[in-house]
Amino acid sequence: MPPRPSVVVLATFIALSFLLLFHQFSFSSPSYYRDVFTRSRSLKAWLNDEEERYMALIQDRQQLIRKWGPTEVEVQPYPSHNKLYTLWDFFIPAFQCPHRVERIGTLGDGGKWTCGVDRIAKQDKCVIYSFGVNNESSFEADLLRRAPGCEAWGYDYSVDRWGPEVYNDPELEPRAHFEPWALGGSNHHEDHDYPRYWTLDSLMELNGHTFIDILKIDIEGGEFDALTSFVTAHAEGDLPVGQLQLEIHARAGRERFEYFNKWWASLEAVGLRPFWTEPNMVYINIVRGAAPELAEYSFINIRGNHALLNEAFN
Ligand SMILES: *[C@@H]1O[C@H](CO)[C@@H](O)[C@H](O)[C@H]1NC(C)=O
């Protein structure tokens, strides 16, 4: 005699409940997080989750533009009164880095917020590019000390070497390369050019690099052209950068909101996501009464295959 239908239903229900319970348990147990394969899924899940949040933020930005514009053409970056925002409020670091976030380099001007330096330090080889040296290299020196596999390439046409933190340390000097050149949106580096401008892609080609783990840029406003050219060149495919520490100089009389907004969106379009920002208070303090034109941002690249995204790096 075949079993009664109600018995079959009950048995199936009990079996499913056990399966679900076990599933639940195995996902929340500590061993789940230790397991390399499953942990990789959790990193991916984290990134997806953050990306969802970030897309919501972009909607919020449009709403804020409608509020103060109503279009981007009318938004003033630094309104003088009765408008409770500045440029920076449209561009908040809403993406959380999935690894340890820490400040590297000196406190005060020169130190930078980074994501997952432990992971980068575990690599046999890694590449740091630094534009804008200005006789201060505490960030690069601390990175090189933390990551013995790293080498740094520095560029600044206004000085002729790294800052003392690097040149006074014989351990670091051999891993730190310097040229008195400028980063630009196009190449102008003939003998008669001053400063000599190189695009980031041309420098990478010159040095034989296909990827930069940590890219620091502090070039007094040159970041607009330089990064536009870089992201345009990589509109297809992945941006060959793991993370970017960028000081942005959005001058009150120069960068219109509309321009800034489009430029920022071009960084987002290639997968750069800001995970940290701080206004440059040192500047605010020195230039009293100026608009808050300078801000530090740190971005991770959420595309490609690198130490911050790679599941095998646990
Ligand atoms: C660079 O900085 C060091 C100390 O931080 C200082 O002694 C030196 O005079 C500076 N050099 C220049 C050219 O400003």
From TrEMBL:
<feature type="signal peptide">
    <location>
        <begin position="1"/>
        <end position="28"/>
    </location>
</feature>
<keyword id="KW-0732">Signal</keyword>
<dbReference type="GO" id="GO:0008168">
    <property type="term" value="F:methyltransferase activity"/>
</dbReference>
<dbReference type="GO" id="GO:0032259">
    <property type="term" value="P:methylation"/>
</dbReference>
<feature type="domain" description="Methyltransferase">
    <location>
        <begin position="89"/>
        <end position="280"/>
    </location>
</feature>
<protein>
    <submittedName>
        <fullName>Methyltransferase domain-containing protein</fullName>
    </submittedName>
</protein>
<dbReference type="InterPro" id="IPR026913">
    <property type="entry name" value="METTL24"/>
</dbReference>
<keyword id="KW-0808">Transferase</keyword>
<dbReference type="Pfam" id="PF13383">
    <property type="entry name" value="Methyltransf_22"/>
</dbReference>
<dbReference type="InterPro" id="IPR029063">
    <property type="entry name" value="SAM-dependent_MTases_sf"/>
</dbReference>
<dbReference type="InterPro" id="IPR025714">
    <property type="entry name" value="Methyltranfer_dom"/>
</dbReference>
<keyword id="KW-0489">Methyltransferase</keyword>
